[in-house]
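Sanity check

After download, print the first record. It should look like this:
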Amino acid sequence: MKITKKLNLFDFTMIVVSLVIGMGIFRTPVNVAKAVDTPFIFFFIWLVGGLVALCGALTYAEIGSRLPVTGAYYKIFSYAYHPSIAFAVNCLILVSNAASLAAVALVGGEYLTGIFLPISKDLSWLKDAANFQYVQTIQIIIAVTAIIIFYGVNLLGLKTSARTQTVLMGVKIIMIILLITPLFFASSPVPEVLISSTAHDSLFTEYLKAFGIGLVAVSFTYGGYQQTINFGAEVNKPNKNIPKGIFSGIFIIITLYLIINYAYVKVIGFEELKNSKNIAAIMAGKIFGINAERILSVFLFLSVLGYVNVLLMSNPRVMAAMSEDKILPVSFGKRNAGTEVLTTSLSVFAALCVLIVFWAKEFDTILSFTIFLDCFGMILSAGSIFILR
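Expected structure tokens:
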């Protein structure tokens, strides 16, 4: 079936931003702060992670322009290496992406649960095993519900899911503006991010270890842009718009991440950041009160829906590409005659996401797992650029 070009530069850029800004920036700064001793290292890790992401974006921009096909993240392995390698790597990547979606959905559940349960201010309440199990069950239900809802949205077709993504991206931008706003209202002084009393007491090896641990969380937060090349055949003027969209999106993301993290440290405080959880909502509450904390929690949950939606848009296209090479059954590549939806691939990927939610149950359980698989796939896929040239 011939695919009608449906995504313009703006649509594609919004997809890039949405694939990267899920819920990581509203959760992983806690993991990074716990790993390091000083605010300086905290910000340095975020800057290094951004530069690595920018280099990666330039690489995938070239790959996407040279191979503008549906499911390109599979096709580059098949073309540059061998179909068997493509199959093995992409099976791992599909599981990793499903885990990433599950992790983000669970973080959304954490924020939404905090609206009506007394856990944002009194963490001791969770020490009771029964209370913890109760909260965890609610978070799992919320995460699974989000996946099912946007599975339905994606069944309506690419144009519907792309328009939905644009709306949710608008919500995300509003939310990010709300996060940055406290910088102009906070009465606390700007933190001395370059100075720390512990800076001279730590060994270089300890700094290096902290840097590595922190970079794991940062890499998760910056990841996702590589999946944008899966839309290659559905982008207008792909040779021009794919590189522009990927580069523009990553530049926007790096800028936003650095500003948001600065706001966290300024408003919440570096030491308190280490022991917080729903950090974005807590920051809003410190400046504007408890009602603002609840409102922002709702916005954060809507941000989760955007990330869930965009991964459900992207990954079935990899399965379709694998089907074209007869590695997966033909049904994975069949599109609905009316909506052009890859129904079988979409259904299988959504089911995999739900299974991982039930298996992992918590964000931290998934984090290291996804980073290991992502790094393995990205090294091989980025290396394909030398063959494509």
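If your output differs, re-run the checksum step. Summary of this record's structure: The two ends are 29 Å apart (CA to CA).
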